[in-house]
Amino acid sequence: MTELQSYKPELPSVMVDDAVRAALREDLGRAGDITTLATIPPDAIADVVIASREEGVLSGMPLARAAFRAINSDIQIETLIDDGEPLAPGDVVARIKGRARDVLSAERVALNYLGHMSGIASATAQFAKRIAHTKARVVCTRKTTPGLRAFEKYAVRCGGGANHRFGLDDAILIKDNHIAVVGSVAATIEAARAYIGHLVKIEVEVDTLEQLAEALPANPDVVLLDNMNAANLKIAVAMVKELNSATRTEASGGVKLETIAEKAEAGVDYISTGWITHSAPVLDLGLDMTIG
Known about the structure:
- This protein is an alpha/beta fold.
- It is built from 11 helices and 12 strands.
- It has 2 domains: about 15-125 and about 280-290, Aldehyde Oxidoreductase, domain 3; about 130-280, TIM Barrel (Alpha-Beta Barrel).
- It is about 40% helix and about 20% strand.
- The relative contact order is 0.15.
């Protein structure tokens, strides 16, 4: 059997450019980088390295490069480590050379993206490593920073995770409040199926094994097993295999680095967690400069 090629994630350049320019406008304000303009000679040239201060996984280089080049397209950037690759303390990620004023004015925006996105990629990699011995995949949620969702979800992919839905419009996810209004799990699934097109998936959240038993005859594409302990997850997976083997299983709720393995070992297909996007610590990357 031919092994499938797994391509690295990429970001559309137009998306990157728009976001970076907005970030630079926010930072430069109405008068530009007045500290740099007041203290750095116009003709000073900077040789810069961006280096990791700690272990992790890199993400965000397309945005960092775009930040420097948006200030001055003549800035030279040599990327030494690509997104998705591991980092050790002291690793040099990139070498940059250009007018010192321009490099300094872009520094914070570039490092903000790198630190935040690399933190997400690093956290995701830690979660993925804990469940590498199972079939489960760690996936993110919509618990993202407003305006940064596409980049945070890209960072999850850089860390070896997968993406859940990107918004309210690309998949049906029936939750407890939808069911409460409609009145039953099965009726909510049937209403959703009557509304959507044939390419849209339907996932339903269930809190109990009784709800799961009601949901499976309605043929959801995925069942989200919310806040179930490992014992109930195993029972739920067995029920799905017996009653509707085409349905995929997703565990969610209370997912921590310490608990993800036991959830994965229950046999679920996916484990979703918002922690990797909304609470992952920033990875410490720094910019070191010499002036020529």
